[in-house]
C-alpha cells in the first residue's frame, strides 16, 4: 500500500484545529481564566424558533411508519430545492433550474470536493490570504507543487489582497484554469462590486477558466449594490460554480447544510460539468438528512426570514463593537460591514502568531492569526462577530485596556 504523499506536504494540523489546541492548552494551564473565543467563525445563537419547530415536526414524521423516510434524494428533496431556487435566485431575477442546485452537508465539503471533477493538471489561482480549505485540498489532490521558503506553493497562482488593493485581487499575469473567489471575503471581510466581479467573469469566459465562487457570507451584505450571487453578473453561468451555506446565514454550523450551483451552461472542452458533479455526489454522498432539509426549508418562510434577520443583526452589532473598539484602541482595521469578520493589522513588530500569543496571555482573547490564511496575511489578525454579545464587548474592553495608547 502506498499513501497519498501529498498529505506529507501540508502542515499536519488544519489552521482552526491548531488555534483550538492552543486555546485548550492555555485553558488547562490557567483553569481560572475566562477565555473569550473570537477565532473560528462558529455561531453562538440558537437556531431560529421556526427551524426548531420544523425539526420537531420532521422528527415526529420519522417516528411514524406512514411518514418515515429512508435515504433522501441524492441532490435534495424538491421542497428545499424549490425554496432555494425561488428565494435565492428566481426572485432576484436570476434564471436557474432546479437540477442545477445540489444540496449538501455544507460549503466546506463542496469547496473541498469540487476538485474531484477537474484534472490534477489544472493550475489554480487563490487570493492571498485565503480560506485554507481551497489551498489544502489542492495540495492533497497533487495540484500545488512544492512549498518554497516564503510559504508559497510552486504551482499555485497567488493573488495578493492587501490594504493597497483594498483586499480585492488583481487579475494575475498568468492565466489560471481555476480561480477561487470568496465574497464577502473570508478572512478580510472585503466585498466585491458588480464591476469588479464582471471583470473576473469576462476574464474567465475569454480564457476558458472556471470560477469557484464561495458566497457563504452573502447574508451579511447590507449594501444594495453589492452582489450576493455571482450569477447577478452576465455570463457567469458559463464560467462559475457557486457555493452557498446555511451555516452563517441561519446558524447551521452544527446542523450541516449548504448547496452548490453547477449551471448546465458550464461546458469545458465540450463536456458539461453539471452531470459530472451529479455523478460525483451520487457516488460519494448520500444526501442531507430529512430533518435538516425541513429545517433549511423553514428558513425560507416569511417567519423564518424575519427570525434569521434578527439573529444576523445581533452578529452585525458585534461586528460594529469589534471594529469601533479596535479603532478606538488605535488599530488599523478592515471589514466588519457586509461581513462577520474584522481584519486588523497587528501592532508594529508583531507577527500574526506573536500577537495571537500575546492577546491570549494579556487579554484571554482568542483570534485567528492572519498568516494562517496565507503569506500575505502575515502581520494581520482576524476576529469574528459570531460570539456572544456581552462576551464580545468584554473582549474588546480588555483589548482597549491593554493596547489603547
Ligand atoms: C472560519 O472561521 O473561517 C470558518 O468558520 C471556517 C468554515 O466555515 O469552515
SSE order and pairing:
Blueprint (H helix, E strand, L loop, with lengths): L14 H15 L6 E2 L11 H14 L15 H12 L11 E4 L2 H7 L10 E5 L3 H10 L14 E5 L17 E5 L11 H14 L2 E5 L25 E6 L1 H4 L7 E4 L5 E2 L2 E2 H12 L5 H10 L2 H27 L4 E3 L5 E5 L6 H12 L1 E2 L1 E2 L10 E5 L4 H15 L2
D-malate binds next to loops.
Output the keywords.
15 strands, seven-stranded mixed β-sheet, binds D-malate, single chain, four-stranded antiparallel β-sheet, alpha/beta, globular
Summed up, what is this model?
38% of the residues lie in helices and 14% in strands.
Total beta-strand segments: 15
Radius of gyration: 21 Å
Give me the strand/helix succession. Answer: HEHHEHEHEEHEEHEEEHHHEEHEEEH
The 3D shape can be described as: globular
Low-confidence stretches: none
User: What would you call the structural class?
Assistant: alpha/beta
Range of helix content: 25-40%
Give the strand order, joined by hyphens, for the main sheet.
Answer: 2-8-7-6-5-3-4
Please tally the helical runs, counting DSSP H or I stretches of 4 or more residues. 12
Strand-residue fraction?
5-15%
Amino-to-carboxy terminus distance:
60 Å
Main sheet: strands, sense, barrel: 7 strands, mixed
Mean pLDDT: 97
Which distinct ligands sit in these coordinates?
Answer: D-malate
Amino acid at each position: 500500500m502506498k499513501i497519498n504523499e501529498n498529505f506529507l506536504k501540508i502542515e499536519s494540523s488544519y489552521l482552526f484545529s491548531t488555534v483550538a489546541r492552543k486555546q485548550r492548552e492555555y485553558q488547562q494551564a490557567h483553569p481560572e481564566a475566562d477565555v473569550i473565543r473570537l477565532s473560528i467563525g462558529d455561531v453562538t445563537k440558537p437556531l431560529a424558533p421556526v427551524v426548531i419547530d420544523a425539526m420537531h415536526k420532521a422528527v415526529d414524521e420519522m417516528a411514524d411508519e406512514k411518514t418515515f423516510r429512508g435515504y433522501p434524494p441524492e441532490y435534495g428533496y424538491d421542497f428545499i430545492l424549490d425554496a432555494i431556487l425561488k428565494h435565492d435566485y428566481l426572485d432576484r431575477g436570476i434564471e436557474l433550474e432546479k437540477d442545477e442546485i445540489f444540496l449538501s452537508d455544507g460549503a466546506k465539503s463542496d469547496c473541498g470536493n469540487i476538485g474531484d471533477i477537474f484534472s490534477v493538471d489544472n493550475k489554480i489561482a487563490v487570493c492571498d490570504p485565503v480560506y485554507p480549505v481551497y489551498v489544502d485540498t489542492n495540495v492533497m489532490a497533487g495540484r500545488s507543487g512544492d512549498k518554497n521558503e516564503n510559504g508559497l506553493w510552486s504551482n499555485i497562482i497567488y493573488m495578493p489582497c492587501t490594504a493597497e488593493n483594498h483586499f480585492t485581487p488583481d487579475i494575475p499575469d498568468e492565466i489560471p484554469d481555476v480561480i477561487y473567489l470568496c465574497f464577502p471575503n473570508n478572512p478580510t471581510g472585503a466585498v466585491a462590486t458588480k464591476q469588479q466581479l464582471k471583470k473576473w467573469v469576462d476574464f474567465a469566459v475569454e480564457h476558458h477558466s472556471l470560477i469557484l465562487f464561495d458566497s457563504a457570507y452573502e447574508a451579511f451584505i447590507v449594501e444594495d449594490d453589492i452582489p450576493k450571487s455571482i450569477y447577478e453578473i452576465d455570463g457567469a453561468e458559463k464560467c462559475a460554480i457557486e457555493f452557498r451555506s446555511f451555516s452563517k446565514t441561519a446558524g447551521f454550523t452544527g446542523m450541516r447544510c449548504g448547496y452548490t450551483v453547477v449551471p448546465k451552461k458550464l461546458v469545458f472542452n465540450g463536456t458539461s460539468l453539471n452531470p459530472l458533479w451529479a455523478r460525483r455526489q451520487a457516488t460519494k454522498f448520500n444526501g442531507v438528512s430529512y430533518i435538516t432539509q425541513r429545517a433549511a426549508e423553514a428558513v425560507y418562510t416569511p417567519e423564518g426570514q424575519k427570525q434569521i434577520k434578527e439573529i444576523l443583526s445581533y452578529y452585525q452589532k458585534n461586528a460594529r463593537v469589534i471594529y469601533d473598539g479596535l479603532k478606538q484602541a488605535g488599530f488599523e482595521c478592515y471589514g466588519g460591514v457586509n461581513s462577520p469578520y474584522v481584519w486588523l493589522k497587528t501592532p508594529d513588530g508583531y507577527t500574526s502568531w506573536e500577537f495571537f500569543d500575546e492577546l491570549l496571555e494579556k487579554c484571554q482573547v482568542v483570534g485567528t492569526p492572519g498568516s494562517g490564511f496565507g503569506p500575505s496575511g502575515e502581520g494581520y489578525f482576524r476576529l469574528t462577530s459570531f460570539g456572544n454579545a456581552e462576551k464580545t464587548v468584554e473582549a474588546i474592553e480588555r483589548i482597549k485596556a491593554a493596547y489603547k495608547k
